[in-house]
Amino acid sequence: MAKPAVADDESDLSPEEIEAKRREAELEDGRMPFMSHLTELRDRVRNAAIWFMLAFLVCWYFAEDIFAWLREPLFAIWRLHTVPNIKPGEFDWGAPRLIFTGLTQPFWVDMSIGLWAGVFVASPFIFYQLWQFIAPGLYKKERRIAFVFAFFSAVFFVCGALFCYYLTLPKLFSFLLSYNSDG
């Protein structure tokens, strides 16, 4: 794209006007016609959908392994109430097990695990596509701020997921299973 013409002699411009011209020139590279924006959006959404579908299929294939990993905190609490760990007078809960109450539930559990794990696995690629669509319309300073924000958002999200898995879920399962009785 052609660069906007800048006066050869900027000595008669104020610093604010020079900054405004610099910022305008910075945005000029990201300008395109409306239909080009729609085409770009279509391509980015398509790419994000492809990444999601690939991640979903991979996670659906490994759904049983993912489910075993997800249920481990529950089973760990459950095993605290079995033979080697129970106090005299308490009843043995037996081996931990989960049941299905409907014919299609095993299929839908695997589909749900594949779906949510696929969203989680594909999210970096989806956010990258979103960034590629938005970034050309931002100033350099805004891009830098958005990049720092995105980085720390990802770090905090992963920390929150780990906090939930290793600290919150065991406490929650322990509380909920405390209502279990031999009756």
In short:
This protein is mostly helical and 183 residues long. It is built from five helices and no strands. Helix 2 runs antiparallel to helix 4, helix 3 crosses helix 4 and helix 3 crosses helix 5.
Fold and architecture overview:
- Helix 2 (34-61) packs antiparallel against helix 4 (105-134) and helix 3 packs across helix 4.
- The radius of gyration is 27 Å and the shape is elongated.
- It has 183 residues and is mainly α.
- The longest helix is centred in the C-terminal third of the chain and has 38 residues, at 140-177.
- The protein has helices spanning 15-28, 34-61, 63-79, 105-134, 140-177.
- It contains five helices and no strands.
- Helix content is 69%, strand content 0%.
Q: Helical stretch count?
A: 5
Q: Work out the radius of gyration.
A: 27 Å
Helix content: 55-70%
H and E string: HHHHH
Proportion of beta-strand residues: under 5%
Q: Which parts are unreliable, with pLDDT below 50 for 5 consecutive residues or more?
A: none
Q: Separation of termini?
A: 77 Å
